[in-house]
Write a structure and sequence with these properties.
With 297 residues, the chain is α/β, with parallel strands linked by helices. It has helices at residues 75-87, 147-158, 170-174, 185-202, 248-261, 274-282, 290-294, and strands spanning 20-22, 28-30, 35-41, 46-52, 62-63, 66-68, 94-103, 108-116, 129-136, 165-169, 204-205, 215-216, 219-224, 239-243, 267-270, 286-288. The protein starts with 19 loop residues before the first strand and ends with a helix.
Length: 297
């Protein structure tokens, strides 16, 4: 397929963001509105890398699919769009993990990190790639890397397997504010699940999870008990809803234990219940109070 594409930059009109940004000292960086790229791993110890064409900036090196952001385009959208355009990465085929932002003051580059949610093979879809390849993590350093990616790779590599998970004690969170929830427990629980669904899409600031980088997209589990179980049974993107048949606390401990056993970390349980906090901390989870979550909602 590469032979079917003529060399050189693509012809025709370009987006206004496709130009150099200049710093006060004359330093230039590609992307008037900043730039973003996608580092995706396949869950089997490989990451998708792009061998850049010679005419591009730092041509001949290996890096991640990405490029200039469009005006008013957020970094995640830009990274996913660029990786789809350059490497055929399916827009619905990546589960977000975290973002890392390089901020030069006049320009930012955001590395969006995710894991393939289903197998796919990259496809050279434009003139910007000599090759696309799933590269074993242990072999990345053997390649001539793009200077920016090479500088960020050690930290990114150390977090490839990190997957935070938040388990929510819905009864405790809903009951933390006297807003009339007792009149309609199912309705109050539904509003909480709606808020968690939005939060699962937006991610949370890294410091809230005591993690590095900029923003993280943890897994979310919310446990509903009693009358609150009437809230919802429909699947929610990014949120697993557990309807406790018996003790809500037992279901929360089971959910936290399953996350710990799966290798997720940190596993955070949101509750103010002292006994429950002690139980989940004993299995390796950490805890936060309801206000920690409510401040995000």
């Amino acid at each position: 397929m590469p032979d079917a594409l003529p060399p050189g930059p693509p012809p025709g009109p370009r987006d206004p963001g496709d130009a150099w940004a200049y710093g006060p000292d004359g330093t230039k960086a590609w992307g008037v509105f900043g730039a973003a790229g996608l580092l995706v791993d396949d869950g089997r110890g490989r990451v998708l890398l792009q061998h850049r064409v010679e005419w591009s900036h730092h041509g001949g090196t290996w890096g991640i699919p990405g490029g200039a952001r469009h005006e008013h385009e957020d970094a995640v959208t830009g990274a996913l769009r660029e990786s789809a355009e350059e490497a055929g990465v399916p827009l619905d085929g990546v589960d977000l993990r975290h973002t890392s932002v390089l901020d030069l003051g006049f320009w930012t580059y955001t590395t969006v990190v995710g894991r393939a949610s289903r197998p796919f093979e990259p496809v050279i879809a434009d003139r910007e790639s000599l090759a696309l390849s799933w590269v074993p993590v242990d072999e990345v350093d053997d390649l001539p890397l793009h200077p920016g990616f090479g500088a960020s790779w050690p930290a990114l590599r150390s977090a490839i397997g990190v997957m935070p998970h938040v388990v929510v004690d819905a009864a405790n969170v809903v009951g933390s504010v006297p807003d009339g929830w007792w009149k309609d427990r199912a309705g109050a629980a539904s509003r909480l699940v709606d808020g968690l669904t939005a939060l699962a899409a937006a991610g949370v600031p890294a410091p809230l999870l005591d993690l590095g980088f900029t923003r993280w997209w943890p897994g979310w589990t919310v446990v509903l008990e009693g009358d609150a179980r009437g809230a919802t049974s429909e699947p929610r993107p990014g949120v697993s809803v557990v309807l406790a048949d018996g003790s809500g606390d037992d279901a929360i401990v089971a959910a936290a234990s399953a996350a710990v056993d799966a290798g997720d970390a940190p596993v955070v349980v949101v509750t103010a219940d002292r006994e429950l906090r002690a139980r989940v901390e004993a299995i390796g989870a950490t805890t936060r109070g309801p206000s920690w979550l409510r401040d995000q909602l």
